[in-house]
Amino acid sequence: MKLLFIDLDGVVADFVSAMNTHPKKEISPYDEHPDTIPHIFRDLKPIKGAIKAVNILLDATNYNVYFLSTAPWDNPSAWTDKRLWIEEQFGEKINRKLILTHRKDLVKGDILIDDRPNNGAKDFEGELITFGSHKYPNWDAVLHYLV
């Protein structure tokens, strides 16, 4: 069984839309650091096709799926909000399957689906699937490759 990690923001949850429409987005210090807006991570919209695709991967017998995300250090509510968000989307399937870290390269596994090389993703020891790239522009392409 392969160990598969999935990033949240930009892969499963649409942080960019929330950031662009939040009423505090132009107020300092949030104008420069929108990821520090309290509770911005709580009510994100899912990325198109993400919930269905992740459920397929969670149900697959050849993958052990975990969420691997980074929460802003200066936004303590983000740590709780991310956990509540995935529980709301996936229920008991994800119980104790969330890892929050600023060093994804320290996590051992086979595959990481991430939209950016930041926080150690580019140095992940396994295969990096870059979500939103030319090769993997959406969840259909990712599923086609993995399943």
Largest sheet: 5 strands, parallel
The CATH architecture category equals: 3-Layer(aba) Sandwich
Percent in strands? 15-25%
How many beta-strand runs? 7
User: What is the CATH top level name?
Assistant: Alpha Beta
What is the CA-based Rg, rounded? 15 Å
Report the order of strands and helices.
Answer: EEHEHEHEEEH
* CATH fold-level topology: Rossmann fold
General description of the model:
- Helix content is 27%, strand content 18%.
- It contains 4 helices and 7 strands.
- The longest helix has 15 residues, at 76-90.
- Helix 3 (76-90) links the parallel strand 4 (63-69) and strand 5 (98-100).
- The protein starts with a strand and ends with a helix.
- A 5-stranded parallel beta sheet has the order 5-4-1-6-7, with helices on one face.
- The chain is of the alpha/beta class.
- The protein has a single domain, classed as Rossmann fold, CATH 3.40.50.1000.
What structural keywords apply?
27% helix; 5-stranded parallel beta sheet; two-stranded antiparallel ribbon; single chain; 147 residues; alpha/beta; 4 helices; Rossmann fold
